[in-house]
Amino acid sequence: MGAQAIGSATVIVSAKGAARWQAGHPWIYRTDIYDEPRDAAGIVTVADRRGRRHGQALYSPKSEIRLRLLTRGGEPIDAAWWEDRIRTAAALRSGIDATAYRVVHAEGDGLPSLVVDRYGPYVVAQLLSAGLERVRDDVVAGIRAALQPDGILLRNDAAIRRHEGLPLEVVPVGGVVPDTIEVAEHGVRYLTAPRTGQKTGAFLDQRENRVLVAEATHPGGTGGHRALDAFAYHGSFALHLARRVAEVVAVDSSAEALERGRAN
Questions:
Q1: Whose CA is closest to 213, among 190, 243, 234?
Q2: Three-class DSSP category at 66
Q3: Helix residue ranges per DSSP H, 23-164
Q4: Looking at the predicted structure, is the pLDDT value of residue 3 above 50?
Q5: Which CATH superfamily hosts domain 3-71?
Q6: What average pLDDT score do residues 35-44 get?
Q7: Is 222 exposed, middle or buried (0-12, 13-18, 19+ CB in 10 A)?
Q8: What average pLDDT does this structure show over 233-260?
Q9: Coil/strand/helix, residue 102
Q10: Are 70 and 135 in contact (CB under 8 A)?
Q11: CA end-to-end distance (rounded Å), the chain
Q12: Could you tell me if 63 and 28 are in contact, meaning their C-beta atoms sit under 8 angstroms apart?
């Protein structure tokens, strides 16, 4: 569904809500809304009671977070807009020494409630708000044009979608994303499961922390040091540590996660 079907709706916010945006916060809450469409999620114009416009936002009528800021301007928010924003986010990650990494980190990249992870030639994304779900077609078109993946999978099974009144689902929206993908990350290789693993298949937002922990770990003398990776999932921290110490013990409550860790 495109943005233009609902882009003419306007939400009126309090002075406190408007000030929140002016101070740099990307959200406006339900308690700071004076007037709203109530039934149709999507992209709306945001104005205060004096009629001053403050930009455009994703609107979620069932969420405590009613508005998520997209732009302070009035430009059309269509597939080309999403393509440009996603392409800009991807350019910031150029030179990363990994085949899998987070391309779009939601509010951190000015694209609220959108997560886009690259796994080599594939993309796994999450649309985490009702406003964003309403313009799914434009978002997917933007991802496809900006990143040109062989396949796109939507991991829309995060529990937060329930607070938005959205179903939990895993949906392929282009090409075929395999059940298992090998990731190369700063000299370490491991397998991920984009369809069934946690998050989008791996904790790609922890990539920098894995490198940092490994760099801060000093090899021991005779016999070497030991390390503990608690809540190990599929062992990506353990694999980075294993290059620095003599022994790593990986612990997790999930037998499936530990089996994946053994394979890695």
A1: 243
A2: strand
A3: 79-92, 130-134, 136-147
A4: no
A5: PUA domain (2.30.130.10)
A6: 90
A7: exposed
A8: 83
A9: strand
A10: no
A11: 40
A12: no
Tens digit of each residue's pLDDT (9 = 90 or more) over 65-95: 999 999 999 999 999 999 999 999 999 999 9
CA distance 250 to 169: 30
CA distance 66 to 125: 22
* pLDDT, tens digit (0-9, with 9 covering 90-100), for 121-163: 999 999 999 999 999 999 999 999 999 999 999 999 999 999 9
Q: What are phi and psi of 188, to 5 degrees?
A: -110, 140
Q: State the chain's mean pLDDT as an integer.
A: 90
Domain 79-178 in CATH 3.40.1160.10? The answer is: no
Give the Cα separation of 153 and 23 in Å (integer): 35
Could you tell me the residue ranges of all domains in the chain? 3-71, 79-178, 182-263
Amino acid in position 102: R
Q: What is the pTM of this model?
A: 0.88
